[in-house]
Write a structure and sequence with these properties.
Layout: E1 23-26, H1 30-42, E2 49-51, H2 55-65, E3 68-70, H3 73-77, E4 83-86, H4 93-101, E5 105-108, H5 116-129, E6 133-135, H6 145-153, E7 160-167, H7 170-174, H8 188-205, H9 211-234, E8 244-247, E9 259-265, E10 268-276, E11 284-291, E12 294-299, E13 311-318, E14 321-327, H10 334-348, H11 356-376
Parallel strand pairs: 1-2, 1-4, 2-3, 4-5, 5-6, 7-10
Antiparallel strand pairs: 7-11, 8-9, 9-10, 11-12, 12-13, 13-14
C-alpha cells in the first residue's frame, strides 16, 4: 500500500501535498455514472480502473474518466490502487472482505451486508488489517446534518419523529442522465451466484421468512429504508428497541410494497412511511421532529442529481415569541462530502461516522421491522442472534 496517511515534510522544511489516493471503482451502473465518478474526481481522487461485469459498460464508464476498463473485481484488487469503491448491486460483504484482505481501504455502497455476523466479521477484519472501512451513507454527510442535529438537541419533550419517503420508479429519477438501456453482456452465471448468495444471507438474517419477505428485506429495507435508519443515527436520535409494521400494499406483488412502521422511544412516537409511487416526478424524503418548544423539518436532497441541496426549517417558540429559521448550504452534496471524509480517514488513520460498526445498528433495525411485518401478516419469523 502506498503511503497516503501523512503529509510529508520535504528537505526544505515545506510540507508537501500527499499523493492523490487511487481508487478502483467496482460497479459502473447508475449511481457510479451519475454521481460517484464525477464526485471522486472533484474530491481529488485518481481513478486508475473502472470495473463492471458488463465489459461494454466498463469500457464506456472508464473512457469517460480516462481509466482502464476491467470486468473482473479480482483484477482491481491486484491493481495499483489504494482503495476501492464498491457500487455493485446487493450485498457487498464478499467484495469488501476480499478488498480488506488485499490491503485496500473500502468505501462500500449500502447494503454492506444482510447479516449482523457479516458486519461484525468485516469490522474486525478491517481493524486487524489497519484499513479504513466506510459505508456509503451519503445522507450522514449532508451539509445540513450537523445543523439539524444541533437544533434537534435543543428541543424539549419530543413527541414525534416522522420520516416520509416518496419513492418513484427509476425513470423519473434518472431519465435526465440519458443512459440508455442497460447492456446485456455480463456473465449470467456470475449474476446468478450473487443473487443466490444474497438469498442465503437474507434467510440467515430472518430464519423461517417467506420468499416474499426475504425479497422485501433485501430489495426495499436494505435497498432504501436503510438510509432512513442511518439518518436517524446521524441526527443522534435514539433507535427503537421494537417496531410495529405492516405493508399497506401487497407484499410480493408486482410492485414493491409500501411500508408503515411505528415505534416508541421514551415519550416520543416514531413513524416511518416508505411509499412506492412509480409515477411520482422525483424522489422525496422529509424528516420531521415535533417537540414542546419547536419543530424541525428536514427535506433531503434528491439522489442522482449533482449539486442538489437539502433544506432545513427550524421552528422555535418560547411563550408568544416564535422564531422560524430556514437553512440551505452550498452545492456540495453528501455524496461529495462522504468522499472528503473517506480521504481524510485514510490520511489520518481515523474512522468516521459511517464506519462499518454503525451498519450493525442499521441491520438490527431492519430485521426488527421485517419481523414486525411478518407478525402483522400472521406469519411470525425469527431474527438472527445479535449477541
Amino acid at each position: 500500500m502506498r503511503e497516503v496517511h501523512r503529509i510529508a515534510e520535504g528537505d526544505n522544511g515545506v510540507f508537501q501535498k500527499p499523493p492523490a489516493i487511487r481508487v478502483g471503482v467496482i460497479g459502473a451502473g447508475t449511481i457510479s455514472q451519475s454521481v460517484h465518478l464525477t464526485s471522486l474526481r472533484r474530491a481529488g481522487f485518481e481513478i486508475p480502473v473502472v470495473c463492471d461485469l458488463s465489459p461494454s459498460r466498463a469500457a464506456g464508464a472508464a473512457s469517460a474518466v480516462g481509466a482502464q476498463p476491467l470486468s473482473d473485481p479480482a483484477a482491481v484488487l491486484a491493481a495499483d490502487v489504494d482503495a476501492v469503491l464498491l457500487a455493485t448491486p446487493g450485498s457487498h460483504a464478499q467484495l469488501a472482505e476480499a478488498a480488506i484482505l488485499a490491503g485496500k481501504h473500502v468505501l462500500a455502497e449500502k447494503p454492506l451486508a444482510f447479516t449482523v455476523r457479516e458486519v461484525d466479521a468485516l469490522d474486525r477484519l478491517a481493524d486487524e488489517a489497519g484499513v479504513i472501512a466506510q459505508v456509503g451513507y451519503m445522507k450522514m454527510f449532508d451539509p445540513l446534518v450537523d445543523v439539524a442535529a444541533a437544533r434537534i438537541a435543543e428541543l424539549r419533550e419530543t413527541r414525534l419523529v416522522r420520516v416520509t419517503v416518496a419513492h418513484p420508479a427509476d425513470d423519473p429519477q434518472v431519465s435526465h442522465l440519458r443512459m440508455g438501456p442497460p447492456p446485456e453482456d455480463a456473465d449470467p452465471a456470475v449474476i446468478a451466484d450473487a443473487i443466490e448468495y444474497d438469498r442465503a444471507r437474507a434467510a440467515a438474517a430472518l430464519p423461517g421468512a417467506s420468499p416474499e419477505l426475504l425479497s422485501y428485506y433485501t430489495d426495499v429495507l436494505n435497498g432504501s429504508v436503510i438510509h432512513e435508519i442511518s439518518l436517524l443515527r446521524a441526527l443522534n436520535l435514539p433507535l427503537p428497541q421494537q417496531w410495529s409494521a405492516r405493508t399497506v400494499t401487497p407484499l410480493g406483488g408486482a410492485e414493491p410494497a409500501s411500508l408503515l412502521a411505528t415505534a416508541q422511544v421514551a415519550h416520543a412516537a416514531y413513524a416511518l412511511s416508505w411509499n412506492w409511487l412509480p409515477q411520482y416526478p422525483e424522489y422525496d424524503e422529509e424528516l420531521t421532529v415535533l417537540a414542546a418548544n419547536g419543530r424541525i423539518e428536514f427535506h433531503l436532497a434528491k439522489p442522482y442529481v449533482l449539486e442538489a441541496r437539502s433544506r432545513l426549517r427550524s421552528m422555535r417558540h418560547e411563550g408568544e415569541l416564535r422564531q422560524d429559521t430556514d437553512f440551505t448550504a452550498g452545492h456540495e452534496t453528501g455524496f461529495l462530502r462522504q468522499l472528503d471524509a473517506f480521504g481524510e480517514a485514510i490520511r489520518t488513520g481515523t474512522s468516521n461516522r459511517a464506519a462499518f460498526a454503525g451498519a450493525r445498528d442499521d441491520i438490527v433495525q431492519l430485521q426488527l421491522i421485517a419481523q414486525a411485518v411478518a407478525a402483522a401478516a400472521g406469519s411470525p419469523v425469527s431474527t438472527e442472534v445479535r449477541s
